[in-house]
Amino acid sequence: MRSPSNNAIVGASQSRPLHKLLVWLMLFVSVTYVVYTLKLISTSRACDDDPFSTPHHRLAAVSNLALPQNATAASHNRTAAAANIPRRESRQTRETTDLRNIVFGIAASANLWNQRKNYIKLWYKPKAMRGVVWLDDVVETQIGDEGLLPPVKISSDTSRFPYTNKQGHRSAIRISRIVSETLRLGLKDVRWFVMGDDDTVFVTENLVRVLRKYDHNQYYYIGSSSESHIQNIFFSYGMAYGGGGFAISYPLAKALSKMQDRCIQRYPGLYGSDDRIQACMAELGVPVTKELGFHQYDVYGNLFGLLAAHPVTPMVSLHHLDIVEPIFPNVTRVQALQRLNIPIKLDSAAILQQSICYDKSKSWTISVSWGFAVQIFRGVFSPREIEMPSRTFLNWYRRADYTAYAFNTRPVSRNPCQKPFVFYMSKAKLDRSTNQTITEYIRHRVPHPLCRWKMADPSQFNVVRVYKKPDPDLWSRSPRRNCCRILDSPKNGTMVIDVGVCKDGEISQL
Question: What is the pLDDT of residues 178-229, one digit of tens each?
């Protein structure tokens, strides 16, 4: 057996090499650290060098150290001059988007073509626009249609694609491929493809205004949702509804056409065409860019409440015109839209734009939906109330109540004294001497319930005349409602209103 003292001696002798190894290791690390630090100091940049500067800027700073003073100054001058030179862009990028850069793809059915082609005639201008109507079958060309409609083509066969939705129709596959089929026509100088239905009416000047905000060289998928909250839940709030129309930039259309047929194969259970488009957009990683002027109008009944309180955005499209009532009373749907076209031609940017003002002497609230209607209310309603659409329409789902809309609404008043007096636009013209539009609105003569309020009766007026200067740059500024002012009228039975850009400090208040 070994003694304890012998064990200590043996342990000390064994630990001595270990101590030496640790010392050499620490010495090596120290020397390495010193050498690295010296090298770092000798190659470090000047103190005033921006840590976030680009490699180009750092190279210029190093080069200046080696140049003579005169050469350094010249280099700075050249750099400053280069900074002021705009980036060279292609001619196509510099030019403003116009109607000639847009191609319309219109989804149509041969069964409804004779009826719905009249909606297309209202807005399509063959000499100024390009587009194609895509049908499911051959139709006869009627005398008088030539030169008024886009060329008609038959969609390609889609029988190879599966469709398993029992509530829908497989024509959705055909319609979903319209953008890709239009792209393959090889049209030149195209920036945007715009999709719509045969019962969609576009305000093309406002469509151009909207698309000019976006870079057509990027991926853009632009449209809007349904008015029905339930529809958006069933389909998607991230989907642009095809009836209201949507726009796809040219590069995105190219990307879509390359993968769409494979994409469609993966979604046989979807209901319609627009949800198939959105499914493919999701695979491409492109979200919808919302523009509230595209109107699907998934409602029934009277659109008055929606049109009289249009959001502060350019009105781009109307849809489901065969389902809702004519927008003007006592005329057909087409005749009503023809009447709306008169102010559109005078000042398309302002069509349906709401202005709110008050007649202080009579305690009236007045709402002007330019080019469409004027309402006079007894009493004072706040702008917050009047800018909400009144529920003159019914939900897409008959059993749904007001909570099933995707926006705020207000009820139609039950108080007989608060029922508005409505004046519909009857004629419009441009006074070139004053550069003002003059629109006249005639009172809609319907029975009004007896009101016992001791205040002025709006029925004393039969006509409202509105003066307004055309404002094509309205949407080049930040969004804001126009203001209206009540003017003295030289004629009994006529109210005169001035509508225009709000003056400094002007607000809508009594």
Answer: 999 999 999 999 999 999 999 999 999 999 999 999 999 999 999 999 999 9
CB 497 within 8 A of CB 366: yes
The number of helices, as runs of H, and strands, as runs of E, in the chain is 14, 19
Distance CA 193, CA 183 (A): 8
Q: What global pTM score does this model have?
A: 0.81
In sequence order, which residues have a C-beta less than 8 Å from that of residue 344 and are 6 or more positions away?
A: 203, 205, 351, 371
C-alpha span between 428 and 206 (Å, rounded): 19
User: What type of residue sits at position 38?
Assistant: L
* DSSP 8-state secondary structure symbol assigned to residue 221: E
Q: Residue 364: which residues within 8 A CB-CB, separation 6 or more?
A: 358, 376, 377, 378, 379, 456, 458
Radius of gyration of the chain measured on its C-alpha atoms: 34
- Closest-CA residue to 255 (of 213, 224, 285): 285
Spell out the residues 6+ positions from residue 122 whose beta carbon is closer than 8 angstroms to its own: 201, 334, 337, 338, 341
- Mean pLDDT, all residues of the chain: 87
Q: Which amino acid, 473?
A: D
What pairs with residue 425 in β-bridges?
441
Q: How far apart are CA 191 and CA 252, in angstroms?
A: 10
Phi and psi for 7 in degrees, rounded to 5? -65, -40
Contact 317, 200 (CB under 8 A): yes
Residue ranges of the chain with per-residue pLDDT less than 70: 1-18, 35-94
First-to-last CA distance in the chain? 112
CA distances from 360 to 16, 78, 387, 484, 509 (A): 104, 65, 20, 13, 10
If we measure between CA atoms, which residue out of 323, 317, 331 comes closest to residue 302?
323
Per-residue HEC secondary structure of 264-283 comes to HHCCCCCCCHHHHHHHHHHH
Both structure tokens of 452: 């016992």
Q: How far apart are CA 92 and CA 482, in angstroms?
A: 34
Task: Quote the CA–CA distance of 399 and 18 in Å, as a whole number.
Answer: 88
Q: Which helix (H) or strand (E) holds 89?
A: none
Q: How far apart are CA 158 and CA 152, in angstroms?
A: 18
Distance CA(464)–CA(444), nearest Å, equals 12
| Neighbour tally for 489: CB within 10 Å | 15
Rounded Cα distance between 183 and 105, Å, is 10
For 356, the enclosing helix (H) or strand (E) is strand 354-359
